[in-house]
Each structure stands twice: as structure tokens, then as C-alpha cells.
Design brief:
about 200 residues, alpha+beta, Hect, E3 ligase catalytic domain fold, 2 domains, two-stranded antiparallel sheet, 5 helices, about 40% helix
């Protein structure tokens, strides 16, 4: 390719090349976004870590229940809903050689994402697209709700002083705009000693 001249013609050619590059970049981004939205409308996998208990079909790109790991998810939900401590559940799973989706041993915090993930009740969510029943459910709504109630009660009991009465009214109702995961209430203290309350993505 010949070098671009420094005269008026060169300025025009350079501007055209830059404009074409920006056009193709914007067109590609639009096609990707359109493709992801089409996938979402069909409840297809759009990237990211696949939750424990699911697999993605190689041809249809849909969520399918994994017969090997879905029972683990059901066990975790059931045992926690029945009152068993998260630490004991984690120790039991690790003792049997079971691991999280990322191949790590279970710890108490491993269950936060599991308990908050509405995919387990069959809800497909991608950005602003929400489809109840869009994917196969691993646990039923009643069990999921029982876990949410106990999880929130334990978080309030152990996460803040007993005299403090703060309610996160959007718990189980607020979702991350990026990945669709449920957001949970959190609090923090500034260097001035002020306490702030906010919501945080379960995947953060």
C-alpha cells in the first residue's frame, strides 16, 4: 500500500479510511448485540460461567439439566432449607470429593451465588429479557423461597449488630443489569465512621 500523501488529498483519504474503520467496527458491534438478543429471546446460552447443575447443548445452545451435578444443587437447597449450617454442608460435599463449577472446594460463600440464582427455578434472564420457564428448573419455587427466607434471616443475624434494624426491601427483586444475577443487600463503613447500605451483584 502506498503511503498517504501529506497534501489535501491525503487528508481526505485518511479521513475516509478512519470513517470506514469506525463504520465496520460499529456494524460488527451491532451484529453481535443483535445476535445476543436473538439468542436471549430463544433462551439460548449467551456466554459466562454455566451454573452448577446445568450443561449447554453443543448444537442447540440451550440449557440442559446435568444428571451428575443437578442432584448436588438439589441437595444443597434442601439441606439448607431444612436448617443445616452452610459450613456443615460444604464440609460434607468436600468430604465426598465434590467440587464447585470452577473446580474448587465448597466454602460457605460458595452458596451465595447458588442460592440467589433464579435459573435454578427455570427463569432465563439476559439484560432486560426475562423468561420464566425458559430453562429447565432444578428446584421448585417453594424450596427456593424457603432458602431465600433463611438465607436473608441468617445474613441479617450475623452480618450486623442486633440493635440495628435495616431492611433491604428489594431483596429477591433486584437483578444485576449486566449478568442478571440477583443482588443482595450489603453494608460498609467509611473512614469517617459512616455506615452505608447498598446492593451488590451475587457474582461480584
Amino acid at each position: 500500500m502506498e503511503p498517504i500523501s501529506q497534501g489535501p488529498e491525503g487528508i481526505m483519504v485518511e479521513s475516509m479510511l478512519i470513517g470506514m474503520a469506525e463504520y465496520y467496527s460499529a456494524e460488527l458491534a451491532l451484529k453481535v448485540a443483535r445476535g445476543e438478543r436473538e439468542n436471549a429471546l430463544q433462551c439460548k446460552y449467551n456466554g459466562g460461567v454455566v451454573p452448577l447443575g446445568f450443561t449447554i447443548g453443543k448444537e442447540d445452545r440451550l440449557y440442559h439439566i446435568d444428571p451428575e451435578t443437578a442432584p448436588i444443587v438439589q441437595e444443597i437447597f434442601t439441606r439448607y432449607a431444612d436448617g443445616e449450617p452452610a459450613e456443615k454442608i460444604a464440609a460434607s460435599l468436600n468430604g465426598r470429593g465434590l467440587r464447585t463449577r470452577t473446580g474448587k472446594p465448597f466454602v460457605k460463600n460458595s452458596f451465595f451465588q447458588i442460592f440467589r440464582n433464579r435459573r435454578y427455578i427455570g427463569e432465563y434472564r439476559y439484560k432486560d429479557i426475562v423468561t420464566p420457564g425458559g430453562i429447565p428448573a432444578i428446584v421448585d419455587q417453594d424450596l427456593f423461597d424457603r432458602v431465600q427466607q433463611r438465607f436473608e434471616q441468617n445474613r441479617i443475624a450475623h452480618g450486623r449488630p442486633a440493635k440495628e434494624d435495616v431492611r433491604y426491601l428489594l431483596t429477591t427483586k433486584l437483578f444485576c443489569g449486566k449478568c442478571g444475577t440477583l443482588m443482595g443487600g450489603e453494608s460498609g463503613t467509611s473512614h469517617m465512621g459512616n455506615t452505608y447500605y447498598y446492593y451488590k451483584c451475587g457474582n461480584a
